[in-house]
């Protein structure tokens, strides 16, 4: 076994159907008593139910979380939180809402408690992001790590099928890149393989019946594992490309990950035999990249960057940005490689 180093991240996880009911007890145990619930505008009514569940501890809902955490949104949230005198924040939603909570924690030092309702996995990472003038800055800081995470699969039964599926492949992307990360470790590889296997089983079942609680539990468990992999390792080409695509063309986060993932897998796995072995075992197929692509197609998600709204003229810009900033990757990437890969993802051509 190769030598490795592994940092365990300090947080409590409560997992299970109706785990949300444990939120008041969790806040009490943390010693906080004045809490604001963050949501996106779409989940405001749900946030109000949670605020009610908190009784006198709930100070209200701040329903303005938005994708990629605009700095102006973070400023406004911090001002609201200071005005009401909150001592803690509950993030109820997906990566956008957790992202807003992290921005608040970064500035105020307040503890955040995450109640994730998608499979993005941000709640398991010390990574924050803030966007201003079209540029997204990201960083790592232990202060933004949620103190506690409550995973309740009943909360995701209403997550639209399309968002569920793309979010699920977003989680799988974390696991894939964690498997060949320079700072991978045996424990992380176990989590990654387990996450991929559970997510791949769960997604078709969710498409067949979005209210299937067993499938929702499997997917949320997988999201936790894949998010923990993301939090513990350094991501490679896939996350680099998706960061560029999202930031430059404002493409939807999880859909972009879903489209790009099989192309990067096909490119990278030939240079990452241990990761490939783990994925072959986890997927039960000789070609994990092809399996991912075919499963995505059978589950009905968008198949190309062109369909997501990327202009063809943007291919050069993606290549330029990807060549400009270094990132870790198991396989060296030339300009010609990038052109082939990005063009294939743009047109949605078969995995070769
Ligand atoms: P999201 O949080 O924007 O949610 C997607 C949509 O689903 C939103 O419209 C939301 O309102 C809706 N939604 C969420 N839960 C729902 C539910 N239970 N029922 C119905 N609708 C629901 O999307 P996401 O993919 O979860 O997160 C994407 C963002 O997270 C991006 O900004 C990305 O950069 C960030 N992210 C950060 C990290 C990190 O480690 N920092 C990791 C992953 C993602």
UniProtKB/TrEMBL annotation:
<feature type="domain" description="Fe-containing alcohol dehydrogenase-like C-terminal">
    <location>
        <begin position="165"/>
        <end position="345"/>
    </location>
</feature>
<dbReference type="GO" id="GO:0004022">
    <property type="term" value="F:alcohol dehydrogenase (NAD+) activity"/>
</dbReference>
<dbReference type="GO" id="GO:0046872">
    <property type="term" value="F:metal ion binding"/>
</dbReference>
<dbReference type="InterPro" id="IPR001670">
    <property type="entry name" value="ADH_Fe/GldA"/>
</dbReference>
<feature type="domain" description="Alcohol dehydrogenase iron-type/glycerol dehydrogenase GldA">
    <location>
        <begin position="10"/>
        <end position="153"/>
    </location>
</feature>
<dbReference type="InterPro" id="IPR039697">
    <property type="entry name" value="Alcohol_dehydrogenase_Fe"/>
</dbReference>
<keyword id="KW-0520">NAD</keyword>
<dbReference type="GO" id="GO:0018506">
    <property type="term" value="F:maleylacetate reductase activity"/>
</dbReference>
<dbReference type="InterPro" id="IPR034786">
    <property type="entry name" value="MAR"/>
</dbReference>
<dbReference type="Pfam" id="PF00465">
    <property type="entry name" value="Fe-ADH"/>
</dbReference>
<keyword id="KW-0560">Oxidoreductase</keyword>
<protein>
    <submittedName>
        <fullName>Maleylacetate reductase</fullName>
    </submittedName>
</protein>
<dbReference type="InterPro" id="IPR056798">
    <property type="entry name" value="ADH_Fe_C"/>
</dbReference>
<dbReference type="Pfam" id="PF25137">
    <property type="entry name" value="ADH_Fe_C"/>
</dbReference>
<comment type="similarity">
    <text>Belongs to the iron-containing alcohol dehydrogenase family.</text>
</comment>
């Amino acid at each position: 076994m190769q030598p490795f180093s592994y940092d365990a991240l300090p947080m409590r996880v409560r997992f299970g159907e109706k785990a949300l009911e444990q939120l008041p007890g969790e806040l009490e145990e943390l010693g906080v008593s004045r809490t604001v619930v963050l949501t996106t505008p779409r989940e405001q009514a749900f946030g109000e139910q949670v605020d009610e569940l908190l009784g006198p501890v709930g100070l209200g809902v701040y329903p303005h979380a938005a994708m990629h955490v605009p700095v102006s949104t973070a400023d406004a949230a911090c001002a609201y939180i200071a005005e009401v005198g909150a001592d803690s924040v509950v993030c109820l939603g997906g990566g956008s809402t957790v992202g807003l909570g992290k921005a608040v924690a970064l500035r105020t030092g307040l503890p955040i408690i995450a109640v994730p309702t998608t499979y993005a996995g941000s709640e398991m990472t010390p990574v924050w992001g803030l966007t201003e003038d079209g540029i997204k800055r990201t960083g790592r800081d232990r202060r933004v790590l949620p103190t506690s995470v409550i995973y309740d699969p009943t909360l995701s039964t209403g997550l639209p099928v399309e968002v569920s599926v793309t979010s699920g492949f977003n989680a799988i992307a974390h696991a894939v890149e964690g498997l060949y990360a320079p700072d991978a470790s045996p424990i992380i590889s176990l989590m990654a393989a387990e996450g991929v296997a559970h997510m791949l089983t769960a997604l078709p079942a969710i498409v067949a019946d979005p209210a299937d609680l067993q499938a929702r539990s499997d997917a949320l468990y997988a999201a936790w594992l894949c998010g923990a992999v993301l939090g513990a390792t350094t991501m490679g080409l896939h996350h680099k490309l998706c960061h560029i695509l999202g930031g430059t063309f404002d493409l939807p986060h999880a859909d972009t990950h879903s489209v790009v993932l099989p192309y990067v897998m096909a490119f990278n796995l030939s240079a990452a035999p241990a990761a490939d072995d783990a994925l072959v075992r986890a997927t039960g197929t000789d070609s994990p990249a092809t399996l991912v692509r075919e499963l995505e197609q059978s589950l009905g998600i968008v198949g190309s960057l062109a369909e997501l709204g990327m202009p063809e003229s943007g291919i050069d810009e993606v290549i330029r940005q990807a060549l400009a900033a270094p990132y870790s990757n198991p396989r060296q990437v030339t300009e010609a490689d990038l052109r082939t890969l990005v063009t294939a993802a743009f047109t949605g051509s078969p995995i070769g």
